[in-house]
Amino acid sequence: MRRLLAISLVAALPLSTVTAAHAQAPDDRQQAFAAAAEEFQVPESVLLGVSYLASRWDDHAGQPSSDAGFGPMHLTDAAAFTGSNHHHEGAEDARGDESRPLPVAPPPA
User: Fold this and answer.
1) Residue 88's pLDDT is what?
2) CA–CA gap between residue 65 and residue 56 (Å, rounded)
3) Kind and range of the H or E run holding 8
4) Strand pairing partners for 69?
5) Residue 32's closest CA among 13, 48, 21?
6) For 74, phi and psi rounded to 5 degrees?
7) Which of 20, 49, 74, 75 has the highest count of CB atoms within 10 angstroms of its CB?
């Protein structure tokens, strides 16, 4: 019985060191969130929470999601992704507010 216990402990020892080394390895994403939190004076927990709610931290293997979002913050640049801006016709109210008239800008002088 003692021998079996000793063999089990020796066999489990490498697993504990691998786990400890993995836990201490730097995480680039975590460092990026920490740097952004410091730069923009936003609590890191807020950035992490918003990013999780936006994307569930699914990066879609670097491809855009069905909503054309990228990365953990689900950032979008739909115009760049599709290659055009959907306000190219000029007659559309870009505000998305059809209930009030669009103010007409005076012609340039």
Assistant:
1) 60
2) 12
3) helix 2-24
4) 76
5) 48
6) 50, 45
7) 74
